[in-house]
């Protein structure tokens, strides 16, 4: 059994802590590793893990030792493997502790997920640092070579069983205060602020098939309130506009969010963590990518679309691409949804195929453990 330190600096959303918490849990539960997760924003962690005490300096949850990453840093012995998630800067004293071990720590920088081809030439390469240690860059990805995707053992089997049981879905939705009506399409919306949203909501409002839009607490809620012409929205609020019913849900723990994705016919997601989980749901998805300076995010979006659409029928690929690009550009949705809406059944089959294909690849946690074993 190896010891692991995972450092997470929460920037402005929950994707960083979402990824690192899933990884820490999986390393402990499935690989028997001793894991410490260092978090600089305990309040953010408590949002995705309601059992957590945001005031605790040290707590053990799901076999993981969760520690508050305080400043100034209180020195501790370094672990066998030290992961800095998404290029967060390790404390200088901890870098020194890594170097002074009898066998220096393996230092990994866990990069952001990307479908871009260039990551294959950089994945797992070392970079000698000023302190004398080499840092290895580990890139999660959808193709080889890469670090793969986070996926717990048995995840797809659990998802299939849940989706095959209407009663299990209804029971879960009822726990959130949701009652699905006959013939109603379920859509989840977890996104950043988006000026394209009103155009889509208008099309859902005017559609032949009724939709229930489930909106967990988050940044997009203000845009939804503006479209509904209400001052504020709170958990439990329900508003009806013709064929569209909107219901606000609480921010939920990760496992509950997975089940929400599994229930829905379409999932609009954002960032990295919810993006991957929506793919494992095997349902149509709409990705709102995190915007970067100089439009650098568009290359990542295009790279994923190229890969995701490669196996799709040409008309579905074209409609999907048009809608995704318009959604991320903040407008121009006129006519883009109608064609895609008609293809939702076909898209569902393709989404399941995609999840199955990605599910055949080794997962991120397993690759990290193997990388350490090979490095020894």
UniProtKB/TrEMBL annotation:
InterPro entries in alphabetical order: EarP
Key word Transferase present: yes
Coiled-coil annotated residue ranges, if any: none
Transmembrane segments annotated in the record for this chain: none
Keywords per UniProt: Glycosyltransferase, Transferase
GO molecular function: protein-arginine rhamnosyltransferase activity
Tagged with keyword Transferase: yes
Catalytic activity: dTDP-beta-L-rhamnose + L-arginyl-[protein] = N(omega)-(alpha-L-rhamnosyl)-L-arginyl-[protein] + dTDP + H(+)
Biological role stated in the UniProt entry: Protein-arginine rhamnosyltransferase that catalyzes the transfer of a single rhamnose to elongation factor P (EF-P) on 'Lys-32', a modification required for EF-P-dependent rescue of polyproline stalled ribosomes.
Family: Belongs to the glycosyltransferase 104 family.
Protein name: Protein-arginine rhamnosyltransferase
Organism from which the protein derives: Pseudomonas fluorescens
